[in-house]
Specification:
Length: about 210
């Protein structure tokens, strides 16, 4: 059997170029595959969240319809913090009977039950988050990508008295805004550049 490593052009140190290609390309492909797969929440975590949803809904006397379960499952399995339109499109491919109105009403019901939280103002393209753990958000002002991150320092952040004078505080989380690495590479600029302007008309960037 002919060995591919024994034929063909070689590098300066004598290593076959084909071998160098394999050593540099395969790890990159594996990393890309891992990043693609990791864009979804693990099946075990999704199952735990769905079980929590079921228990909470029953305790609140909320009917568990197939449409409501699928809407929650879509948000619970995504790392993208989807808005109502994205949830509708995804659920509709699996359940054609679901309507956009049902998705909206279900999402706000889930929010009222404390099963999901929101990013953005109700007057704009609100995005939904089913991660129940204490966390904060990084939001790209270019593409709108939102990601969770943990910080014990921010968890213990003390609010000024002026905030409490405005009313009661139910929860606190920090939303960090910037230019993600992907957008920065496309623009050929650094993420910490203060001269990258924010696009006009993008919705879902304001935290409510």
């Amino acid at each position: 059997m002919l060995s591919t490593a024994s034929a063909g052009p070689r590098s300066v140190d004598g290593t076959p170029l084909f071998t160098i290609f394999l050593l540099t390309t395969i790890p990159t492909c594996i990393l890309f595959l891992f990043m693609t797969v990791s864009r979804k929440v693990s099946p075990d975590e999704v199952a735990r969240r769905v079980a929590q949803f079921t228990a909470t809904a029953k305790a609140a006397g909320v009917k568990l319809t197939p449409q409501r379960v699928e809407v929650f499952r879509e948000v619970a399995s995504s790392l993208e913090h989807p808005d109502a339109e994205a949830v509708f499109q995804a659920v509709h491919t699996r359940m054609t009977t679901v309507s956009l109105d049902t998705v909206y009403r279900t999402l706000w019901m889930l929010n009222d039950l404390g099963l999901i939280s929101t990013l953005g103002s109700r007057h704009e393209s609100v995005r939904f988050d089913a991660n129940p753990e204490r966390h904060h958000h990084y939001v790209c002002v270019r593409c709108g990508k939102a990601r969770d991150f943990q910080s014990t320092e921010l968890d213990t952040l003390r609010l000024p008295h002026t905030v409490r004078e405005l009313g009661s505080v139910l929860s606190t989380h920090v939303e960090v805004r910037g230019i993600c690495d992907s957008c920065a590479k496309k623009a050929g600029k650094k993420t910490d550049s203060p001269f990258i302007s924010r696009p006009k008309g993008r919705k879902g960037q304001h935290h409510g």
